[in-house]
Amino acid sequence: MDRRKAIGGILGLTGISIASVVGVKYFYGNLKSKRGQLQNYSNLISELVDAIIPATETPGAKEALVHEYIINYMEECSSMKEYNNFLNGLNNLQENCVNTYHHNFENCSTVQKNQIIENLDNNYDSTSLFSKINNKLQGRSFFDILKSLTIEGYCTSEPGATMHLEYQPIPGKYNAITNLKVNQKAWATK
Amino acid sequence: MPLPTLRLIKRRGQQNNLIMTNQTTNNTFDAIVVGSGISGGWAAKELTEGELKTLVLERGRNVEHITDYITAWKNPWEFKNRFHLSNTDLEERPIQSSHCNATDKHFYVKDSEHPYIQEKPFKWIRGYQVGGRSLTWGRQSYRFSDLDFEANNKDGYGVDWPIRYDELKKWYDYVEDYVGISGSLESLSHLPDGIFLPPIPMNAIEKHLKESVSKHYSDRVIINGRVANLTEPKKGRGPCMYRNLCSRGCPFSGYFSSNSSTLLDAYNTGNLTLRENSVVKEVIYDELTKKAVGVKIIDAVTKEEINYYAKIIFLNASAIATAAILLNSVSQSFPDGLGNSSLQVGHNLMDHVVNEGTYGIYDGLLDKYYEGRSPGTIYVPRFQNLNPETKSTGFVRGYGIQGKGERENWESKSTTGIGVSLKAQIETPGKWKISLGGRGEVLPNYENKIYLDHQNKDQWGLPLVKVHFEYGPNELAMMEHMTKASEDILRKSGFENVGSYRNSPPPGSAVHEMGTARMGNDPKTSVLNKYNQMHDVKNVFITDGSFMTSSGCQNPSLTYMAVTARASQFAIKMFKSNQL
Fold it and tell me: Would you put residue A102 in left (φ > 0), alpha (ψ -120 to 50) or beta?
């Protein structure tokens, strides 16, 4: 179940050297965070989740208030390791954003935002043996946490479950075998 | 959609008592039942219907049917952290947390309030409330057969059961007809058919697996799981709405629990008194009459000690708690605990051995789906050691495998990328996946036991329970075998990425603890006789999992219910003929 990866994929974004990555990692890895800080990042997280799941013909993650779920989860349910990874990842991303684009993530263009997120996505890997072991030791990486909570938060939100997916609170019957309909959506819950 | 059948919502009583209406002035009843879970509920129903004034003592809080199912109507987004337990929850429920989530945690105890001592890892999963774990049980209901009742006698582990299938058959019929078990008739002698409602049908992948297994194996079959979910209405309850949210409590009474059924019927007789927050300290024994005369309770809230008296005592507190009550009931005649002249009380603790779980993905049948969420499973009945042809060289007894097939959704589907493409991947049903999990018989072993630690006390001053439990080589061999067999079944059936989880759950995880006051013919080696009376104290009956002389591999609740009904009817007869 545990997945994760070392440092965020931030490096891919700026092409910073391995040495400086190690430096960043060392710095943030030793930063002792306290819980209760993530509300301050609400805008940033809402923009991040919306880049991962944007509005299309169905609402995006921001409208589904996925950022609020992520903040709740990280504050109340996450391990301290992952809390630190997540908080450091947010700071790191913002810093790299400013270095590269000269303004913070919220003010980036859609193209820039996608570039940043795609870079993070390309540079994380939750399935390799290395990352599994690393996850066990250090908690999942920033982007692993962000992406999986975004998907979960969106699919369990009211807009996500009822508009992007199909949600039946009270099926009333069980048709064990049906033919897949054209454009059939997946059930939101099991 | 059929309208919900809201059956008899009882009003909540004054402060902490549900219904103390039949309270007598001298705290005296005909019968006392300790515990209101699946077996206690049955004892209450039978005894009250037999016109015995019956006091049911529940150590936890009241849970009113429907009214107190506080999460039953909640949508996923109405849970702040979705289904995740918070760090505070984990601190309060470090042991229970593996078995509950944010939607049903209130039906699981806080370990911090109810500590016990594990000499070796053993999960004691508990629900201290009216209805007990009947609210959250897995609802799987299988009969034992003579393969099980004769097993100890044949291979020499444990002592012989004092009953055989013939004697229990009509009681299985009786409880199944009341409970409502959905299942299919299969004519398997080692897994007898019962009185069934129509089975929950198999979906496309489950059907595929069934057909494939019948093609590839001569020794095993796949059948519809037998579950206490109502595929048709029953006695004003149900039918099942296929929400698959059972563990929150069902507002449609779609599955069997004490709350939805037995306790309500007991209440309707006018003979039931139910007292919540009643922690039983001991059974009171009278040296002159050589009988139990009542029980001493501690009010969980006020800590006040109160005695209640009755001619008949039923202990249905669950295997570990019942043994603890007996061991704490010390008298001149029974310095080692009530009815414990055999020194078997607390020993021979069993659970079912559960493997890691196996899964596989099937690349096909992509034009099929389902509508509604099945609360059932498929089942591979035991196929080892049935006869000389199926004899295993690695272990005695056997195991069954439960399974479920579904199409992956966002929860398990692997996705790539972000943005519009990710969204599109989430939107559609994934591939078919089947998960299988074995449930194996645990041998009775004197060394596996619970006992009391008088140095360490709980908040009511009662000694803490200590559990010592370890799997033996037979269980370990079986565990390995069930994993390999599960993988083999999936591979032969065309599944890909077949694998098993790495960590096997610790003992206790099946939540089938039993055997701590076993039945037997010989008072020297067993605690209960064939009617579940204590050999030593004839007016004390024990019909929770404690009585189990062997564990079988079937989910045991149905057997507890059948045995409870049988023992209750016997007790009523004895009571009415003044023989108790």
Answer: left
Task: Say how far apart CA B69 and CA B49 lie, in whole Å.
Answer: 27
**Contact B140/B555 with Cβ under 8 angstroms?**
yes
Helices (H), B30-113: 38-49, 87-92
Q: What is the mean pLDDT of residues A122-137?
A: 77
From A177's Cα to the closest Cα of chain B, the distance in A is 5
Of the candidates B80, B202, B366, which has its C-beta nearest A176's C-beta?
A: B202
Neighbours of A133 (CB within 10 A): 12
Strands B28-34 and B378-380, by their bridges, are unpaired
Selection from B304, B293, B307 nearest residue B338 by Cα: B293
Judging contacts by C-beta atoms under 8 Å, the chain B residues touching residue A73 are 81-82, 84
- Could you tell me if B374 and B421 lie in one domain? yes
Range of the domain at B397: 197-225+353-440+471-500
User: What is the rounded distance in angstroms from the CA atom of residue B557 to the CA atom of residue B40?
Assistant: 12
Per the structure, how many domains does chain B have?
Answer: 2
A178 to chain B, closest Cα gap in Å:
5
Residue A48 in contact with residue A62, Cβ under 8 Å? no
Q: Are residues B361 and B347 in the same domain?
A: no
Query: What is the four-CA torsion angle of A56, A61, A64, A66, rounded to 10 degrees?
Result: 170
E strand or H helix at B212? helix B204-216
Q: What is the pLDDT of residue A133?
A: 78
Retrieve residue B207's tokens.
Answer: 């059907």
Distance CA A79, CA A64 (A): 25
- Across A111-125, B359-373, B487-501, least confident range: A111-125
B554 with B524, same domain? yes
pLDDT score recorded for residue B22: 53
DSSP letter for A9, please. Answer: T
Which range (A28-42, A66-80, A163-177, B522-536) has the least confidence?
Answer: A28-42
The interface pTM score, or ipTM, of the predicted complex is 0.92
Same domain for B205 and B133, yes or no, is no
Element at B210 (helix H, strand E): helix B204-216
- Assigned token pair, B411: 């929860």
Q: Which residues of A touch B374 (CB under 8 A)?
A: 174, 176
**Terminal CA-to-CA distance of chain B, rounded, Å?**
51
Task: Looking at the structure, tell me whether residues B275 and B411 fall in a common domain.
Answer: no
CB B370 within 8 A of CB A177: yes
Q: Which residues pair with B118 in a beta bridge?
A: B467
Q: Any residues with CB less than 8 A from the CB of A34 and at least 6 apart, and which? A: none
Cβ pairs A/B, distance under 8 A: 163
Q: Which of B81, B404, B406 would best serve as a mutation to test chain A binding (most A beta carbons within 10 A)?
A: B81
Please give the structure tokens belonging to residue B175. Answer: 């409880």
CB B561 within 8 A of CB B40: no
Burial of B128 (0-12, 13-18, 19+ CB in 10 A): buried
- Compute and round to an integer the Cα radius of gyration of chain B: 23
- Do B392 and B268 belong together in one domain? no
Give the pLDDT confidence of A139-180 residue by residue, as tens digits.
Answer: 999 999 999 999 999 999 999 999 999 999 999 999 999 999
Omega prior to B444 cis, within 30 of 0: no
CA distance A84 to chain B (A): 15
Give the CATH number of the domain where residue B567 resides. 3.50.50.60
Q: What is the mean pLDDT of residues B261-274?
A: 97
Q: Are strands B496-500 and B540-542 parallel, antiparallel or unpaired?
A: unpaired
Dump the DSSP string for B117-133.
Answer: EESS--------BTTGG
Q: Identify the pLDDT of residue A128.
A: 74
| Closest residue, chain A, to B250 (C-alpha) | A170
Rounded-to-integer distance, Cα B205 and Cα B166, Å: 37
B339-356 tens-digit pLDDT: 999 999 999 999 999 988
Tell whether B389 and B435 lie within a shared domain: yes
